[in-house]
Amino acid sequence: MSDKEVLVKVEGLSKKFCKDLRTGLWYGVQDLFTNFMGNKNERTLRDKEFWALQDINFELKRGECLGLIGHNGAGKSTLLKILNGLIKPDAGKVTIKGRVGALIELGAGFNPILTGRENIYNNGAILGFTREEIDNKLDEIIDFAEIREFIDMPVQHYSSGMKVRLGFAVAAQIQPDVLLIDEVLAVGDMGFVLKCFKTIDDILPHTAIIFVSHNMPMVSRICNKLILLNKGEMQYFRNDVAKGIDKYYSGFINNFSNVLMDEGFLKLISIYINTEEKNNLPQLNWGDDLQLILKFQALKKILQPHICIIIFDKEQRPVASLELNKKTDLTVSSDGYFEFKVTHKKLQLSKGIYSINLIVYKDYYKKPILRINSVLNFQVKHRDDIWQPFLLSSTFVNKFN
Fold it and tell me: N or C terminus of the chain with fewer C-beta within 10 Å?
């Protein structure tokens, strides 16, 4: 077989569901009869129906890993279930060559009353392997899953992490031609996830992988192609994974603040970044100065508030705090207003969208009086797409010159 052989081909794939069970059952009976003459309703919606997937087209070759991303309800799991043969499409065609391994639901494919060892043989047989082939891989599977002590215990007594380790071990060690993975790696601990990444790197040259996840660093780590689904339609399909992930994140940008605590001492009047905006999103080039202007109104007498500004990345992980001078006096006007500017020179956050959380303490002894999450979003622009939180300025010197 060719190294660049197409293993998965999806043509005009569509799937619809009915919101009402009784109506859906009636449509199913109708379709049983019309299918003999060619289903005239396969491309049209009837009352109470909606498209879970509509007109999906793509190819996946050996050695390619396709990231499948989208918001909840976008159709990702439906597409994976069709590819795995669990449900039938209403229209279109799916062609898959070779053996298919799938990790699409926690514990899926396991018989809970059978032991881990017995389930290994069951899963291997489903994939089309002989008992002898499974015997040769058995020790590798058990060692990879790290459950040798519990391998002869019924799977129904396994923890969620143990089920994931066993399922991935079977799928990876037996090395199917096509491997489907749906979010289950999020259950494993970091050590096991890193081992899974290493295994995926090893088997990818001989396999086609479809990887579904909401964890964008994971997607960027292992995928070389990307599909972004939105309400069942393909919004993006290219090899530029970073650009697709940016489109995914743009769907979360909003302009409202989440006030978690307000003791009535202060009111935030305004907060903005002194830079140009695009689509109501402040934009900075990498290396620009970050100038943040805040205006408050004091509603109660307060001696010296201590203000904390925290920057979060797209995954809502805290990446930095802005250091404020604790001894600076804030001049309050007669009507209780005060305004100040915070400047950070030569911003070196990597390309992406960030949000700002604001916490105000009554004094330096940490008595919080106001806390607002995602009070402001901003974007850092750069030509390079990287997933490390910082892109640090550096100078290269050739010592032989």
Answer: C
CA angle 228–233–236, rounded 5-degree value: 35
| Largest separation between any pair of C-alpha atoms in the chain | 86
Q: What is the pTM of this model?
A: 0.71
Collect all residues with Cβ–Cβ distance below 8 Å to 38 and sequence separation of at least 6.
none
Q: Measured between alpha carbons, how far is 166 from 145 in angstroms, rounded to an integer?
A: 5
Q: What phi and psi, each to the nearest 5 degrees, are found at residue 304?
A: -150, 90
Cβ(267)–Cβ(297) under 8 Å? yes
Query: DSSP letters of 95-154?
Result: EE-S-EEEE-STTTT--TTSBHHHHHHHHHHHTT--HHHHHHHHHHHHHHHT-GGGTTSB
d(CA 379, CA 286): 10
Is pLDDT above 60 for 8? Answer: yes
CA gap 224, 267 in Å, rounded: 47
Question: pLDDT > 90: what percent of the chain?
Answer: 25
DSSP letter for 400, please.
T
pLDDT, mean of residues 73-79: 89
Q: Which two tokens stand for residue 102?
A: 């799938």
Mean pLDDT of the chain: 83
CA distances from 254 to 102, 112, 177, 355 (A): 36, 44, 42, 10
For the cut 80, the answer to whether the pLDDT of residue 186 exceeds it is no
Asked if residue 128 has pLDDT above 50, the reply is: yes
Q: What share of the chain is helix, strand, coil (3-state, %, to 5)?
A: 25, 35, 40
Q: How far apart are CA 296 and CA 340, in angstroms?
A: 9
* Domains of the chain and any CATH numbers: 6-250 (3.40.50.300), 258-381 (2.70.50.60)
The owner of tokens 């995954």 is 315
Task: Provide the pLDDT for residue 1.
Answer: 45
Mean pLDDT of 91-103: 86
| Angle of the 116-126 helix axis to the 131-145 helix axis, nearest 10 | 130
pLDDT of residue 187 exceeding 80: no
CB 198 within 8 A of CB 222: no
CA distances from 230 to 72, 74, 223, 227, 299 (A): 9, 5, 19, 10, 45
